[in-house]
Each structure stands twice: as C-alpha cells, then as structure tokens.
Amino acid sequence: MSTTRRLWLGLIALLVGSFGVLLWMGGDIHRQAPPVPERVASSTGDTIYTREDIEFGRQVWQSIGGMQLGSIWGHGALIAPDWSADWLHRELVERLDIEARRTGLGSYSDLDEAQQAALQSQIRADYRDNTWNPETGTITVTEERAEAIERVAAHYVSLFGNDPDMTALRESYAMREGTIEDEARREAVTAFFWWTAWATTAERPDSDISYTQNWPHEPLVGNSPTPASFMWTMFSIVFMLGGIGLLGWHYAVYHGRAPEPQPPVNDPLEELVVTPSMRATAKYFWVVVALFLVQILLGAITAHYQVEGQEAYGFALSEVLPYSLTRSWHTQLAVLWIATAWLGTGLFIAPAVSGHEPRFQRLGVNFLFVCLLVIVVGAFAGQWLAVMNKLGLEYNFLFGHQGWEYTDIGRFWQAFLFIGLMLWLVLVGRGLWPALKRRDETSSIVALLFLSTIAIGLFYGAGLLWRENSHIAMVEYWRWWVVHLWVEGFFEVFATAVISFLFVKLGLVRAKFATINVLFATMVFMAGGVLGVFHHLYFAGTTTAVLALGASFSALEVVPLALIGLEAYDTWSKQRATPWMPRYRWPIMFFVAVSFWNLVGAGLFGFLINTPIALYYMQGLNLTPLHGHTALFGVYGMLGIGLMLFCLRGLRPQATWSESWLRGSFWSLNVGLALMAVLTLLPMGVLQLQAALEEGYWYARSAEFMGQPLIELLVWMRVPGDTIFSIGALMLSVFVAGLWFARRREARQEVAAAEA
Amino acid sequence: MAEFYLQIRWVHVAAVFASGALFLLRGLLVLAGRKQWALAVPVRYLSYTIDTILLTAALMLMTLLHQYPFVHGWLTVKVLALVAYILLGSIALRRGKSARTRRLAFGAALLVYLFILGVARAHHPAGWLSTVFA
Fold this sequence. Notes:
By secondary structure, chain A is an all-alpha fold. Chain A contains 28 helices and 6 strands.
C-alpha cells in the first residue's frame, strides 16, 4: 500500500472516530444540560419565575445583541459584566445582608471577617443544594433567597431602562439609554439571568459540582475549580509534551528528505490564461479590502466605547450605533472578509487548475457575489433594527439578532449564506472537475483541496442546527461546531492544502511529497482539532467528560504549532528558489507571518487560556481577545491577504507591483497587531486575572475594576498600535486600487502610443 | 483617568516639541542638500513614533476635557492647521520640485506650526492674536 493511500485511510479512520465521539458527546450534553424549570417558587409557594419568563427573557436578551453585550457563562463581550457572575455576586451580597439583619447583626458590610465567614457558610447550602424537582419541574428557593432575587431583579430592571440613577453604570458598561425599552421585557430578562446564575452554583444530582463545573470563581459561595480541572490540566500538558516529542521524531525521520524538484526557468503562472470567470473574481478582492477597512473602523469604535461608554469624541454615538452593534459587526466582518478572500481564491484557482472554463461560470461567480452583498446588507440591517428595539420579537430569530457571538445573524440570513456556500461549492467543483478526473500525480492534492472546500461549504450548516428555543448548552455545542470546527479546523486544512498546491503549481515542490505533507498535516490538525472543540465548552453546562476530552485534545492542537518554525523557514526560503520568485515575495511574506502568528497567537496565547484551570479564571477576560485578535487576524487574516495577493498576481500578471506600499502594509499590520497585544490586551488581561484570582471573577469584570485609571490608561495604549495597524490596511487598499488604476493608465498610454 | 491629566498633557507637549524640533532639523538638512539624511529610514520611523504618541495623547486629552474638533472652535482650527502643516511639511521634505518651492513650504510650515502652538496656548481659534480678537 502506498504512503498516500495509507495516509488517506488513516485520515478517514481518524475523522470517523473523532466525529463519532463528538456526536455521542453531543447527546450527552443534551441529556445532562441544566434543567430549565417549569416554575421557580419560594418556600411559601409564591411563583417567582416561570419557564415562559425564562425563555421569553432569553429571547429579549438575544434581540438586544445577546453575547455582544456582556456575557453568559463567560461567553461574549468584555465591557459589560458577565451577567451570570454579576447576578450571582449581587444576589449573594443581598442574601448575606438579609441574613445579617435577620439575625440582628446589622449590615453585612459592618461585620468582622469571622462573622462574615460564618454567615457565608450558613447560606452556602441554600445555593449549592439542588432543589429542582424533576417530577414537578419546580425549583424551590428559601424566602430569604426570594427576597434577594427580587432586589437584584429591581437593579437589572433599572439598569436596562432609562433610570437616570443608573446612567453612570450604563456608561461604564457601554449600554445605551433604554437598552430594553419595554418594562415587561426588562423583567423577563431578569428571569433568564437568574436561571444562568442558578446553574453556576446548583450541584448536579449525586455530585458536588455545579452545572457549570463550579464556574465562576466566587469565594462567597465556595465556587472554586473542581479537582478534575486540576487533573486534566496537568494531563493535557503531559499529552502535549508527548505529542511534540513524537512529531519531533517524525520530522527527524522525514523532514528534508524529499528531493527538491528542478524549478522551472520561467514563472509557470505567467502563462496562466485568465478566463472570464477568473477575471470576475476581482470584485471579491475589492470587497475584501473594503470590508477589512470597515471592520477596523468598527473595532476602533468598539474599543473606544471602553473609554466613553455612550459617546465618541462628543458625538452621542450609542443613540444610532450602540456598542453591541459595533461589536457584532466587527466580529461578523472578521469572518466575512476572510471567508470572502477564500471564496474568491477558490473561484480563481479552480479554472486555473483544470484549464477549463465551464459554461456560465462567470454568471455564477457574479450571481454569488450579488448574493453575498445582499446577505451582508440584509443581515446587518436586521441586527440594527433588532438592537434598536425596532423589530418585533417574533421576527428576531429569523431576521434580527440571534445574539450568539460569531453566529449572530438572523436564521434566514444564515440559511441564505449556507445556500451561497453550496453555490460556491458547485462553482469550484465544476471548475475543478476535469482536474479531479485526471489521474496524475497532482490528483490527490486536488482532491484534498476539493474536500476542504466541501467541508467549508457543509460545516457552516451546523449553524442551522439549533432552534429558537434550543437549550443554551446545545446552542453552544453547535455554535462551536461553526466557530471551532469550521474556522479553526477546515479553514486550516484549506489553508494548508491551498498553499502547498500553489507551491506545486509554481514547480517548487513535487506533487507527491506535497500530498503526503498535506495529508499528514491534516491528520495532525484533526487529531487535536475535532475533539478540541470541547475546550470552549468546559463551563457551558457540560459534564466532566467534556472537560477531560476538551483539555486533552485541544492541548494536542498546539503540537504542530510548536514545530511550525520548520515550515516557516521552508516557506521563507522559497522566495529565493528561482530568479522569478521575487514576484511572489509579499504573498510569501504574509504566509511566513501566518506561521509566526500561528505560533504566538494560536500557540502561545491560545495555550495560555486553554487548560481548564487557566480558562476557569481567564474566560471572558482580556486574555481571550488577546488570543482572538492574534490568532484570527494573525493567522487567517494574514492568510486571506496572502492568498488575495497570489490571486492578484495571477489576475494582473504583467503589472509592476509597488514594493513600498506592500512592504509598508506588511510591517504596519504586523507591528500594529503586536503593539495591540503587548501594550493593552496582555497587561490588562493579567491585571484582570489577578483580580479574578484574589476577589472572584465578578470583580475582574466589574465597573469598579474596569474604571480604574490604570485600566483606562491601558485602553488608551491601543491607539498607537491600532493607528499603525490601520495605516497598514490603508496601504494595502492603496496597493490593490493601484493595480487597477495603474492598469487604466497603462492602457491609456498604450492607446496614445498606438495613435501616435 | 483624570488622575493622569498632568502627565498626559506633559507627554503631549513634549511630543509637540520633539516633533517640531525633528521637522526643523529635517527641513534644514533638505535645505543644506542632505535630503537623503532627512529621509533616512531611522529618521522617518522616529518621526512616525513621535507623531503616534502625540496623537494618542491628544485623543486622551480630548476625552478628558470633553472638548472636540468641529464642536469647539479652537480645536477645529488646530485640526485644520495640522492638515495644512502636514501638506506643507510633505512639500518641504519630499514633494517640492524646486529648492525654492521647498524653502517656501518649509517656512510656511514653520509658521503654521507656531500658529498651532499659539492656538493651543490660548485655547482660542486666533492663537497668539486671541487678545486682539477677544
């Protein structure tokens, strides 16, 4: 059996096994999810909340941006608090005060440490004992707790409305005035927040661990990491070290053994025939640049809301474009422009590979483009209407704001995007078809490329698998299929396949060895990547098995990144492989940057927050966007730009490239990103971490902590890095625009010369 | 953040003088026929660094004082004069075709720079002449 065949079989076995476990665990999450009660009642029999309240409250919360304004169980935005942790802490403080007064001690805050500790242990059972009765579907709480709930609910009703007393707090949370205009809806939201807080301390039946694995850290009620969190943290590090050792052995045996091919004398892509459909992809790349610029602008506004919660330099911005919207669009556009760059790349290279232009291909490319524009405009308009309370709740799920970070466009738009991806798949497939049918040495790598496009097309479909009222634990499960498996998994496979493929086409690598490398790399990615999805779900209402699997497999995701220097050096050396290779210098430099940020952003900053014990404290602190920015832009953003440049080289083979614009753009983007990470996100995250460890998670996210002068100063330290980064993006757009304007100028000069 | 007001203002003022001094030096180098020194990579990057610090401090002060361009006259004038200064500076150092053009642009840029200082000192659109217009 050939090596390629063995690897294919290995990959298939790995995927079947991993997805089998993933699906089976999905069933387990469904069965073990924290129960949503039919009724929450006080011990005197009064109804506090009903299931309808909780579900309606969740809908309301989703419609105002959901995870894009504060977070739930640590998932979501960073400026407003984590509502579950915040509610829990507020309720505990109220409860302790009620207890202190009831026992005649006066106010809780006036007590000494010993008295406070005694009261804390007195109320603990009230919170940790699970009083949910599966037969009646009722959760019963003590009268004192019911009173505490009432007080916290009053606080939230006031916060989400227009109460002038709360304006300062709303400002520090970057909430607009009248976030939820209708009072009945504000009251319903409290039901949902309470339920999420209840699940953080109520112990699972026959267990002493809460539904959220004791997350968040809350000393007042003894919420601290579980023994399993410690154990699997240590095991995962051992697995990772073992994996690195094994991969090191593999590299020692195989690396550099492949014979170098004789590179062609001339650039093979120079003779590329640019077909009408390939030419039609140009507009995809213009849109990539435009969306990238808009995304940066929205990011700057989102960051600025951390300084002025409702304004931007004197303009009352939150009245027309509140924080939850700018952040929704900023995060959505990140995925959208990168995806558009890849869609464009797929459409460009398919006919280039096969040398065949299928009928009506150009029409398909143009039609898909129009669909994508309609989706972006329609989905964003729906989100604006939802967040501004202008869209009825009945339409919110379909057309408004779903509130689930990264997958928050309305269901109709999601489905439309899925259809668009299917159309893309068909277009790429029919372009590649003759090459897929050919039985030559490149057929395996073409097949891999095509399989990764199929995966990209199909796996977005996971985003359609939850319904409006699905349990939040299940929504999280499927949501991370999209964000993790789609973005972190299959994008990665596509990236590896497409880069290797381009090198094969340039004659720098032999197809056979490229295929083996890509297949092996895919196996390594997928071995950790598929079940690694669970590292997002440690505290999302799942069981210890999820924590164990997530910790172990996601640690393996770091293994290939530890040795990425070898790949980076290989890529780097390609620049000088032939006299014509400098034509591709900047796409290659962007690919080298991909490796660098893969190590730093995905590897180091990713692993920093990856183990259960680390994430227990760090989830939703600024260490999360530290990883998010450096990995999403650092890896996929840089890759999107690199691929775009490659395609532009093919689209404009004879154009003279402006080195200085590209060099400036490359370094500005990299330096800007590094400064953002080092000057703001990392130090701020570390300070928050210390606060979470010492005081409890709620404190690290509180207005009190985030309003400190030092934190505000650190937020301002984003300006230098962000400015340099934005200049880099502007230089890139000038470069891309220059390719077309220069072409017009050249054409005019040619005409003038001919006429003369 | 108001606690840091004086320090931020100090950084802003220091960056203003550093930026102005560097521009003066680079302009003189161009006049002396040493354009390659004025445009050398380390010098250019030093200039970008100073200007980025200057801008950051300016945005922080704006937020602290709640005074904004296009809302408050003196800041509007400062921003417009800054644009003129940048354009003139670019002609003086790089884009000016003849020595005369570069010299004139350099002189004009310095005058605009001094005018901006005046506007900043007086918090008045007329700058040094604010007492006349007051």
